[in-house]
Structure formats: structure tokens, C-alpha cells
Specification:
CATH superfamily of the largest domain: Bira Bifunctional Protein, Domain 2
EC number: 6.1.1.15
Enzyme class: ligase
Strand content: 25-35%
CATH topology of the largest domain: BirA Bifunctional Protein, domain 2
Number of domains: 3
CATH class of the largest domain: Alpha Beta
Number of helices: 13
Radius of gyration: 25 Å
Catalytic activity: tRNA(Pro) + L-proline + ATP = L-prolyl-tRNA(Pro) + AMP + diphosphate
Keywords: Aminoacyl-tRNA synthetase, ATP-binding, Cytoplasm, Ligase, Nucleotide-binding, Protein biosynthesis
Number of strands: 23
Distance between the termini: 34 Å
Subcellular location: Cytoplasm
Helix content: 25-40%
CATH architecture of the largest domain: 2-Layer Sandwich
Length: 480
Amino acid sequence: MSKEDVGITVSKNADFSEWYTQVVLKAKLADYAPVKGLIVLRPDGYSIWESLRSTFDKKFAKNGIRNGFLPILIPESLLGKEQKHFAGFNPEVFWVTHSGTNEIGDRLALRPTSETLAYTMYAKWIQSWRDLPLKINFWNTALRAEIKATKPFLRTSEFLWQEGHTVHTTQEEAEKEVMKILEIYKNTVEEELAIPVTTGKKSEKEKFVGAVYTTTMESIMPDGKALQMGTSHFLGQNFSKPFEVKFADKDNVEHFAWQTSWGVSWRLIGAMIMAHGDDKGLVLPPNVAPTQVVIVPIYKNEEGKEKVLSKVDEIKKQLETKEIRVHVDDRSGLSPGYKFNDWELKGVPLRIEIGPKDIEKQSIVIAKRHNREKSTLSFNEIEKIFTILQEIQKEMLEKAKEQAKENTIEISNYDEFKSKIERGGFFNAPWCGKLECEEKIKEETGADIRVIPFGSENEDLKCMYCKEQSLSKPVFARGY
């Protein structure tokens, strides 16, 4: 028996980091590549990404966004056009310096992000107001030198993501786009992955380098650490000016354009694993599960096998007419108990058990993965499984919301904050808006401002750190 056939050997509460890694590997979502910091996606892991991609693509298309492709190599001379932006990525950049044995001269960066490349092309494509708005999304990989403290899906040197880049004639239109995208992200993560998020803005210190401001969505994980789930940036004219992204208006007067950029990565898969998994392994929300229902036939002899498999095939076809993703586990030489544990490890939302006695009773046994409840359904109730999957999806989101609520703390006393931050959580605390207070809090506690929630303006309280008048109540937390 191989190591990956052994179940999870640590408790989620006892060793969260080791538990997480075991779930990724043993549920066969991904594996480590030969190069440090890189992972290989296995079919189930990639299927989840494809599901998210499909959902995003449909929503992007409704918003007038089309997909394109960008190459991975960016000349260093191009990056120098927006030095402040690129300086933020410089320590993480992989460089190509040779072609074969020959030096190439102008070094080539392996894309850490694509603003400079995309906007060089946009400057060529845009001449007049008739070319705008220009809205393109790119499904890419990005590379950043994450060699230390790597974690599958959460922190790797190469990762899958989408990055959108839009160009507009007015500031107002661009800012509306920023919020539209953030809303698409929020709805998708909550509806597909059953993970609640808090949306708002990043502080000046934490915003995307080169942006006027950054909007973000943040989630609190069961271990009390925050995870950035996605960002949408208003770039203003900070890139259009150095890259000369200009348009002529209806009076043939030339203007610099207004721009946005935004992205999510396969970090969303890591969040899903952490938010829902348990000591048995992965727990998948039905909407993104590669297999939504697994059928385990139970029989002792050939006569029973033929009878059971005939009924199983009938049930499978019935479920597939409802577009439910079904798998029949008819592997020989393995006990039903082994198969049950195997599918629980892989997180399949619903298991159907059926044997000769069940056929006599004209019923099946169903087992829900998220709460491990078992019940029976009669043969004429099979179609209820579609509704049951919808209920599971809803229940998983409600449970995650409850966990997030339990991990969210209102606080205004800094000494109390310091004593509680070790346990983790989202801390809603008053802040004066000053960079020095933000930096001191980070330096002394390891917690930073994850998000300043929309509507969190507050001038009635005193800053948690300096006791001067507060401006807002950001979420402070330690993060991944």
C-alpha cells in the first residue's frame, strides 16, 4: 500500500499545517514537482479550477469581457517604464539571461504580473473613443520566487490565475468596473465555494503597487489566519501615462485613458480545502466537486453482483439526466468500508450505497459528506438527490459563515488585542488612518490591516494604538 493510500494521520485542530498538506496530497488534488516551490495539478484539482474558470467566464462575458492570451516573457526595458510598480515585484522575479549558451542582452522576466506587457499592447490597439471600453481577461500562469515556506495552492513559485485589464474613457466608468468585478468575485466565491468573504479597500500601505486604490475580499480560515481571496484595482492614469495608453475623443482631442486590473488565483482552492475539510479529509461543495455523487455497489456473489450493478446503472443514468456528475465505484478486491473511507478522503458530497437487501426494500442508503448523516431514499425519490445537493451547498456556506462569525472579534483596547492575536481571528479595531500606527501594530504583533470594510468609517472611537480620533474600523489579522 502506498503512502497516499493511507488516510489523514493528524487532526485538523492539532496540526493545521500538516493536516492541510496531507489533504492536498492524499485527496489527489496536487503533488510536488521536482523543482522546489512548484506543484503539479492532478485531474481532480484541475477540474475544480476548470469549474471556477467556467463560472467566471460566463459572468465576465455578461460584463462585456473577452479572453485573450499573453506570452510569459517580458523584457526588462519594458518593465522599467513603470519602475515604482515593478520595484514591488523585483525580489520575486525569475530572469532569463541566456538563449542556449548565448547571453540575450536585455534580460527577460518570467511574468510576475502582466500590467506592463498588456499596456504596451493596449497603447498600439487604442486610437479613439470608439475603441473603448477595452475589457480583456487573461487566463495565465504567473511566476514569483516563493522558495521559503511554500504551501500547495497558497504560496508557490508558479500559480494559475486570471488577470483582467480594462481601459475606459472616464474615471467614473473605470471605478464602476472595479466594483463590478469585486461583486463578481464575492458572489462566485460564496456561491460556488461556500466561503464567506469581507469586502472593502486595502490601506495605502497594503494596496497594489501602482494602483490609486485596491479593493479586496478577505476570508478568515479555521486556524485564525486571514487569506486574501482576490483583488480589484483602480489604476487611474498611473499606467496610461508612462505607457501612453491614449484615445482621441469625439472632438479629436487626445486624453490619457483610465484603467483597472483585477485577479484571483488557485489560492481559492486552498481556501476551500481549509474552510471545509475535516479529520477524514477533503469536503467538497457540490457546485465545484468533480464527482458529486459516488455509487458504491455492495454484493457477495456473482448473482448479487449482476442484480445490483443493473440497478446501479439505472440510477446512474437517472441522475445524469439531471446533469449530476456521478461515478460508480465497481473496483474489485476492495471492501465497501475501504471504498467509503476513500471517497470520504476525496470529499465527494454524496455517497449512495446499494446492495441486494436495499433492492428488496426498493431503496438506497445515502451518506452526506459534510455532516456524515445517513438516510434512505426510495427508488421513486431518486430525483430528490438534485435538491439534496443544493441543500448541502447552502448548509456548507451557512456553517462557514458561523465559523467566520465566531472568529470575528470587536476590540478597541490594544493590550487586549496583543493578548488575543496569538489565537488568531478577524479583529475589528478603530484606527486613526496613520501609517506609523499601522506599521507599529504590524511590527509588535505580526498583524496587518487586511481590509477596510465598506461602511466601516468611524469617528466616534479612539485609535486602538495611539488613542487619537479614529477614521475607520479595519480588520486586523495575521495572514497567509
